[in-house]
C-alpha cells in the first residue's frame, strides 16, 4: 500500500503488524500532519453488525482526550469496505522494547507505570476497558511521555463482546484469571495486566511462565509468583505489595478502581507508605515466620514420605489422556519404503485410538502436517493440544523391521517417559504394534478392558501396499469432489487387487458409492447395491471394525432413511473406537436433523479435537452451527476449513450462512466462482442477475438445473438442491414441487431437510409440513 492514497491519507511506510491489524505511517494531506493508520483485520469487519459495534467503541475511544492515551482522529473505511483508524503518530519506543533493553531503574519503572495508570484511569471513568494491556501497547515517546495505544480490543462496559461466546481476547501472558476462562471482564482485568507489567519491569521476568500457552494459563490460574522483592532485594517492600495486590487471583481482592492503584503509586513515589500497604507488609512478615516454622517441622516428614514413596512405588502415575503419534522418520536409506513408514505411523495411531482409557488420540490427517517440520515438541503439543507425543525412527524395512520409539511427556516440560527398540519380521509387524500399544498403555497407567486385551493379543497380519493404497484413497475421499471420489475409488480398488479380503478397503468403496450418488455421478440403481455389497463384505470380514459400522451408518442415513438402525450403527462405531473422528463428525449431522443440538455440537467438536487440521470437519462444523442459527460462528468455522483446504462442504456452509444473514453480495461472489466452469449455468446466472437481481440469478440457475434432472454428471443436481435454488429465488411453490420429487426419488440429500435454516420460508406451507412428517423429522412452525 506504500505510495497509495486512501481518502486524504498518503501511505508513507509500514510501521508494524499484529493481531489487531496493520499500521502504516501516513501523511494527512488536508491538515498536513503525520498520522498512523491502522487497518483492521477482515474478520472483525466481515458483517455489518460487527462494524457497527466496532465503530461505536472506536467513537467512544476517540473521546478519550488525555496526555497518556494515543489520540484517535477518525474512523473510516476504504472503498472495499475495510475499516481503518487514523491516530496520533508517536515517535519513540514501545515499553516492550525498553524492557528488552534491560535499562529501567526502579524510579523509571514507577514513573512509567504511574503514567500508564493515569491514562487507564481516564478510560475507566468513561466506562471503557482496554482488555489488552501489555508492553507492546504502551509507547514511551522520545521525551518520556507514556501513551497507551490500541483500544481496538476495548469494550464499552455492559456491551456485547466482539467475538463469539466463550472466546477470549488479548495476549495470554498478561491475561487475568477471569479473562483466560472467558468470563466477562471489567476494569480489574486491566489492573491485573498493569500488575504483570510492573512485575516484569521490576524483576526482569514474567510472573507466570510456561513454554506454551496452556502452561501459562495453568500458572495464571493455579500458581503464585515469587515475590519481586525476593528476586530484586533493592525494590521497596511497599512497591512489592502493590504488585501483589494487583495480582490477586480473586478480582474482589484486587484493586477495585484504577484510582486506588494510582494513589498508592503516588504515595510510595513520595516516600509515604499507605496504611493498607503497611498492613499487608505486617501480614507478609507473619506469613514468612509461619512458613519457616512449618518448613522446619515438615522437613523430616517430607523425607519420610519420600522414602516411603520410593519404597512403595517404582514410578509415578503419569496423568496423560491425550497423545499424538508424530510421523515416524525413515532412516532405512530407501525412499521407496516411505509409504511403509507412513503406514506404520497410521497403524500405531489406529491401535491407540481403540484404547478407551486414552481420551484423545490425534488423527493421521493432522499429525502428517509435521512430517518435515522444524517445530519443537512443545510447539507441536500446543498446536495439537496434547499432553504427550510419540516419536520414532525406522531403521530397517525390508524382510524385517527395526524401529526405535519414544514416549515423551511435554507438559509442563519435556520428559522422556519411555523408549525402546523393536525388531520383527515384516509379516509380524501387527504383533509388534500390539506389543507397543500395550506397553504404552501400561506406562501412562491406562487400564485395558478385557476386550482390548483380547484384540491386542490376536493381532492380524496386513499387507503394507494395500494399506498404503487405502490411506491414499481416504485422503482423496475427504475432498468430497467428483475428482476426489474417482481418485479414492481407484486407490481402494487397487488395495483390493493386492488383498481382496482387506476390510478397510471395502468400507472405502462403500463410502465412495454413497458420495457418487449424492453428487449425482451415479444413479440410485447402481450406487446403492454397490455401497451395500461393499459394507456387508467389510462386516463379514471383520465385525469389530469401527469403520465398517460407520459406513453402514452413512448408508442407513443418506441412502435408506432408516433412522433407528442408522443411530444404532453410529453408536456401535463409537463404542468400538471412541477416538474415530469421522463417525462423530457425520453423527453430528444426523443429530442435527432431529434438533438434538447439544449432542450434535459435542460430537462435531470432538471430531475437531481428534483431528484439528481436517478441513472437511470444519465445513461440517459450519453446517451444524448454521442449523443452530449461529451464522457468525459458522462463517468462522467455514473460513478456517477453507484456509486449510478448499472443500465443497466448507464452501457450501459459508454460502448458507451468507444467505441466512442476507449477505447476498458475498453469497453471489462465491456462487459466481463455483459456476464459472459451467457455461450454461454461468450465462443463466448473469442474465437473471441483470434482469431481476439476486432472485433472478437464483431462478436462472434453478431453471438450468431443473432441465438436467434425471441425468448424471458433474453439474447435475438432485431435487433437494434444485429446491434450494427456487427457495432463494422466492418461488416457493416450485421449491415444494421439487421437494416432492426428491422424496419420491429417494434423494440422498433430502435428510438435510431436517436442517431448518434452508427452509424457513416454507415452514407454514402444509405440503412442507407433510414432507417433514413423512420423513420423520420435527417441524418448526
Backbone CA Rg: 31 Å
Shape: globular
* Structural class by helix and strand composition: alpha+beta
What distance separates the N and C termini?
52 Å
CATH architecture of one domain: Orthogonal Bundle
Enumerate how many helices there are, as a single number.
31
Side-by-side strand order of the widest sheet = 1-2-3-4-6-5
- The CATH superfamily of one domain appears as Transferase(Phosphotransferase) domain 1
Word description of this protein:
- This protein has 781 residues and is an alpha+beta fold.
- Among the domains are: 5-88, Phosphorylase Kinase, domain 1 (2-Layer Sandwich), CATH 3.30.200.20; 106-273, Transferase(Phosphotransferase), domain 1 (Orthogonal Bundle); 322-455, Rossmann fold, CATH 3.40.50.10610; 463-578, Serine Threonine Protein Phosphatase 5, Tetratricopeptide repeat (Alpha Horseshoe), CATH 1.25.40.10.
- The protein is globular and about 90 Å long.
- Helix 26 packs antiparallel against helix 27.
- It is built from 31 helices and 17 strands.
- The two termini are 52 Å apart.
- The strands form 4 sheets. A 6-stranded antiparallel β-sheet has the order 1-2-3-4-6-5, with helices on one face. Strands 12, 13, 14, 15, 16 and 17 form a 6-stranded mixed β-sheet that branches. Strands 7-9-10 form a 3-stranded antiparallel β-sheet.
- The longest helix has 38 residues, at 275-312.
- The chain is 54% helix and 12% strand.
- Strand 15 (388-397) and strand 16 (400-409) form a beta hairpin.
